[in-house]
Amino acid sequence: MKKLIPFVLSLLFIACSPDHDQDGPNGTDLPADSIAITPYNSGIIVYEEFLDHGHYTINTIDWVTGIEKKIFPLEADSIYCRFPRFDRASKRVFFTSRNSYYGNSDIFSMTSNGSDIRNHSQTTDVNETMACPSPDGKSVVFTSETPDREFITLSILNLVSGEQQELLRWNYIEPDTRYVDKYLFWSRDGNSIFFNANITGIKNSVQRFDLNTKKYTTLTPDNNSYYVTNISPTEDKLLLCRIVTGSCSLYAMDYAGNNLHAVSNVNLGNAVEAAWTPDGKSIIGCIQRKPMESFQYYYLANDHQVGQQIGETKNVKFSLDWIDP
């Protein structure tokens, strides 16, 4: 099936289609009644799509119609653009991008339809890898690599003045290396920044940088690897992926690292990504349902079952965020 019908007809279609795959992650069968539609029914998902080595685009999925479209780049077919994040203050999508796999990325933003593209960093010798806007839309926190690739830094860019403030710097050649990986979030109250760090290449942990004390703290236990994958839009809590021997399940905790608890035992496979819907009541998971299949988005029907697929099945999808309706 090459395109979705409106969501109001999705359940009927899924129930009647003989070609619908009801296998769960790793090929386990799902009961027919687990194919459910999320009660959240508005807004747009923005995400990055991996085409092939070094080639990414930024796309959207309309939640109501299921229609997908590429919003960046519009003229070229291949460019290295990563980690889209929607700024609710300016109504713009922030991301990092470069023109080739081997160049340096800058921090960009655009409207939700891909217009009015702005380069906010315009550096030639620094590779900005991820960026996340502040709650007030006046700054972005970002990670970058020094020209010699010896250090990785966590910094803040003031979008009004252009001033940069370095928060952390790590030498990731040293044995006690720590480096930021995959995702980056700013707390709703503006006081904390959350990121993932790999310690000595063994366990991945969730870190909080306190902007008031200028100190960072490890929030997760060291018995397993954890990734922060989303921040709640309605509460002061984080959504985490816990990795145990190749299995990825979802956990939540508060900003201080307390009350760590499981929210879903659905195995996300190798995707390591999920997000709450904007009302905070449902979860969308990025799931590799079978080995060698690409990552796609699915509504999690409950704490142990996968529901309806969101969007078309095509290339690898990840780094989702929500554009307000």
TrEMBL record:
Residues 1-21 form the signal peptide. It holds the Pfam family PD40. SUPFAM superfamilies: DPP6 N-terminal domain-like. The keyword Signal applies. Keywords: Signal. InterPro entries: 6-blade_b-propeller_TolB-like (IPR011042), WD40 (IPR011659). Belongs to the TolB family. PANTHER family: PROTEIN TOLB (PTHR36842:SF1), PROTEIN TOLB HOMOLOG (PTHR36842). This is TolB protein.
